[in-house]
Design goal:
Elements lengths: L6 H13 L6 H6 L5 E10 L5 E12 L5 E7 L5 H17 L6 E6 L8 H15 L8 E5 L5 H15 L23 H16 L8 E5 L3 H12 L3 E7 L2 E4 L6 H11 L10 E3 L1 H5 L5 E4 L8 H6 L4 E3 L8 H9 L3 E3 L1 H4 L2 H15 L5 H25 L5 H19 L5
Parallel strand pairs: 3-4, 3-5, 6-7, 6-10, 10-11, 11-12
Antiparallel strand pairs: 1-2, 2-4, 7-8, 8-9
Helix pairs in contact: 1-3, 1-15, 3-15, 4-5, 6-7, 6-13, 6-14, 13-14, 14-15
The protein binds glutamic acid (GLU).
GO molecular function, one term: nucleotide binding
Protein name: Glutamate dehydrogenase
Pfam family, one: ELFV_dehydrog_N
Length: about 425
């Protein structure tokens, strides 16, 4: 994090900004600014050397008005109660802007997984799954991967849940390996929506994506897939970074070979096609047509935003711009495609996975990608319609206006329970 902005406060200020354009009572808005419940738990597992270690873990169920809570579980030293609350709120408005029948949730464990063996991580994940068991289920709360978790962890959670419940219920979790009930196209989905949204934005702004220059901050699953797909669309990826530093070549480089280099050496730094080494911050402030922040929250604060030179930003990460950065970028006419739309491909294909699990019928990758494209294009069009209708300066506010209205409608239509 480049500054200590509290992500939960960022979420609340984003909701307040949008509320100014909505005819919804303050009492309802107040409800939509807070999670319904948060589990905080301590997991104690045995290390390989026989010692015990305790880990703090959270699951926030933010809102279930539109369907089961939905959202990932991250493993990171920076996980905190407020971070998980914020991320669960962003999930609520993400599922709403793409209009899939799910609510919002998020979980996390405070850990640096690099410091632990696979068997330690398995014990820890299964221990978390046991704690989560009473609150999850395919109709209740459906976790998924997030930062530093993937198919392996999802398979362990599914197995723990199904063993304890003495059932088969693959839809209790998404992001599984294909042989364990996962969906084709799920791994690529976050990067895919990031570039589909960018393509729509370029089209809307009458800008040419062919030959456009792109910088990608964060080269994990979302970042490198976005780089690969935007390159296939004819854009030129000129810079990429990860936690150890960045690479730059003004003529572009092969994003897949850069990823292979990262797999081999642990970092993009040192990749042979790079002409210059950059810092993470340099990558964020390059003069490019499109910037894709694909790491963690608060990557761009107000100070850094003053130096941002990109024309369009497509947020693959959750919460990469602070609200103060948003204000600066608004003044500079940077078109920011908000995270809740740009990275919604992950949860959208999770939704397809859940549907396939319930139908016990698998879709082809082609069908997954086609249906994803329709959903992202429709969501972008809904955003633009509201953006123009209210003459908004910030596409993020437009996305929240659409999303909050949908959640509030579901809440009000349900009536009150005495
Ligand atoms: N962790 C992803 C996100 O932040 C995906 C969540 C999901 O698939 O439920 O959107």
């Amino acid at each position: 994090m480049s500054d200590d902005t509290n992500p939960f406060e960022s979420l609340q200020s984003q909701i307040e900004d949008a509320a100014n354009y909505l005819d919804i009572g303050d009492d309802v808005i107040e409800r939509l600014k807070h999670p319904e419940r948060v589990l905080e738990t301590n997991l104690t597992i045995e290390r390989d050397d026989g010692d015990l270690e305790r880990f703090k873990a959270f699951r926030s169920q933010f809102n279930g008005d539109r369907g089961p809570y939905k959202g990932g579980i991250r493993y990171h030293p920076q996980v905190s109660r407020d971070e998980v609350k914020a991320l669960s709120g962003w999930m609520t408005y993400k599922t709403a802007i793409v209009d899939i029948p799910l609510g919002g949730g998020k979980g996390g464990i405070v850990i640096d997984p690099d410091d632990y063996s696979e068997s330690e991580l398995e014990r820890l994940t299964r221990s978390f799954a046991r704690e989560l068991r009473p609150m999850i289920g395919e109709d209740r709360d459906v976790p998924a991967p997030d930062v530093n978790t993937g198919q392996r962890e999802m398979n362990w959670i599914k197995d723990t849940y199904e063993t304890l419940e003495n059932t088969t219920e693959p839809g209790v979790i998404t992001g599984k390996a294909i042989d364990s009930g996962g969906s084709a196209g799920r791994v690529e989905a976050t990067g895919r929506s990031t570039v589909l949204a960018a393509r729509e934005a370029f089209d809307y702004l009458d800008k040419d994506l062919e030959g456009a220059t792109v910088a990608v901050q964060g080269y994990g699953n979302a970042g490198w897939i976005a780089a690969k797909l935007i390159d296939e669309m004819g854009a030129t990826v000129v810079a990429a970074s990860d936690s150890t530093g960045g690479i730059y070549n003004p003529d572009g480089f092969d994003p897949v070979a850069a990823k292979d280099h990262k797999i081999e050496t642990g970092s993009v730094v040192g990749y042979e096609e790079s002409e210059e080494e950059l810092t993470n911050e340099d990558v964020l402030t390059l003069d490019v047509d499109l910037l894709i922040p694909a790491a963690l929250e608060n990557a761009v604060d107000a100070d850094l935003a003053a130096d941002v030179e990109a024309d369009v930003i497509s947020e693959a990460a959750n919460g990469p711009l602070t609200p103060a950065a948003d204000e600066v970028l608004e003044g500079k006419d940077v078109f920011v495609i908000p995270d809740i739309l740009a990275n919604a491909g992950g949860v959208t294909v999770s939704y397809f996975e859940w549907v396939q699990n319930r139908q016990r019928f698998s879709w082809s990758e082609e069908r997954v990608n086609e249906e994803l494209e329709t959903i992202i294009v429709d969501a972008f069009n809904a955003l633009v319609e509201t953006y123009e209708e209210h003459d908004l300066e910030n596409p993020r506010t437009a996305a929240y206006v659409v999303a909050i209205q949908r959640v509030a409608d579901a809440f009000e239509e349900a009536g009150s329970w005495p």
